[in-house]
Design goal:
The chain has helices at residues 13-26, 50-53, 71-83, 102-110, 112-120, 140-147, 190-199, 209-223, 225-232, 242-252, 264-276, and strands at residues 32-38, 59-64, 87-90, 128-133, 166-171, 174-178. By secondary structure, the protein is α/β, with parallel strands linked by helices. It has a six-stranded mixed β-sheet with strand order 3-2-1-4-6-5, sandwiched between helices. The radius of gyration is 21 Å and the shape is elongated. The structure holds guanosine-5',3'-tetraphosphate. Guanosine-5',3'-tetraphosphate binds at residues 64-65, 67-68, 92-94, 134, 136-142.
């Protein structure tokens, strides 16, 4: 993907420093860290400092929104995280799929050693305490609500509104530290930023919608040609440019301007919206072996 024409994204250094301090300060209160990533962008949707910040803590990586991701790719990512020493599971916090395995995986895999130790010392009943981390929109509130059985109301991360940390009881033996603070994704990497823009994880204005849709169409034409041709009933080849593909979509959908030109802006909005809604099928935007690119 050509990213030289992208604007640099501006983030808020104050938030980052505050969140970094919060994580470090609260880490000693928990037994394990649950890190939520987007299954479509498991690398780009991770906070780049997470490994360093939570070093030494047992970790469960949840590949959320797996309903929108390619199953084969998700399995590769699960293997990747397991090979790097963290337990990993695919979940869908919208439908709840996969969530039944979360607490058992924490007790029998992530914290197996601690559980045994507690058993031996007669402390088996002590609650397991967890910290949940993830970039905005990755599904933290959805996960907490689903695991807590809908008892907890959603609290927005609004700038200027201070939340204090609170413990949320997930069941009789599990407590979750719900912390304020904004975690940032891998924004310094423009390839990663582009993928996050495709999924809507970061603001669209790093590129205009047409440029974004063109880049997405090129990716789809290369990696998921069947999904693209089935959704829009278009034929294309490797020679098609981004604008060429966008025009094919617009033309097929009858999106014309009064002068007979194709309304590529409308076509772009359609492509982006339909991709985000999963209408193009289940698509993953990066694989573990290309993550160093
Ligand atoms: P956050 O706390 O980490 O910021 O994320 P939150 O739970 O608010 O989720 C952000 C959006 O992602 C929500 O959509 C939520 O429904 C959606 N979402 C969370 N998990 C999944 C999942 O596994 N699959 C899919 N397809 N979507 C998921 P929204 O449009 O902001 O709200 P709404 O659609 O729930 O009204």
């Amino acid at each position: 993907m050509e990213t030289s024409d992208m604007k640099q994204i501006q983030w808020f250094p104050g938030h980052m420093a505050k969140t970094r301090r919060l994580i470090t300060a609260n880490l000693k209160l928990v037994d394990a860290v649950v890190e939520i990533v987007d299954a479509r962008t498991p690398f780009s949707s991770r906070n780049p400092e997470m490994d360093r910040l939570t070093k030494g803590k047992p970790r469960l990586v949840l590949l959320n929104k797996s309903d929108l991701a390619d199953d084969r790719a998700t399995q590769k990512w699960i293997n990747y995280f397991r090979n790097s020493g963290a337990e990993a599971l695919a979940v869908d916090c919208k439908s709840g799929k996969g969530l039944k395995s979360v607490i058992p995986a924490i007790r029998t895999k992530v914290l197996a050693e601690l559980m045994e130790k507690r058993e031996r010392s007669g402390m088996a009943g002590a609650p397991v305490r967890l910290m949940i981390v993830g970039i905005p929109n990755v599904g933290k509130s959805s996960l907490i609500n689903k695991l807590a059985g809908g008892k907890r109301a959603k609290v927005e991360d609004r700038p200027g509104v201070t939340r204090t940390k609170q413990w949320v009881k997930l069941d009789n033996s599990t407590e979750l530290l719900d912390m304020p603070g904004v975690l940032w994704p891998k924004f310094e990497d423009q390839e990663a930023a582009l993928r996050l823009a495709f999924t809507g994880a970061i603001s669209d204005d790093i590129l205009d919608t047409e440029a974004l849709a063109m880049k997405l169409l090129k990716y789809l034409a290369e990696e998921y040609p069947q999904s693209l041709s089935e959704r829009y009933k278009i034929e294309f080849s490797a020679e098609d440019t981004g604008i060429g593909l966008l025009e094919k979509v617009g033309k097929k959908r009858g999106m014309m301007l009064s002068g007979g030109e194709i309304n590529t802006e409308r076509a772009a909005i359609t492509v982006i919206d339909e991709f985000r809604a999963g209408k193009l099928g289940r698509i993953t935007l990066e694989l573990p072996d290309e993550k160093e690119k």
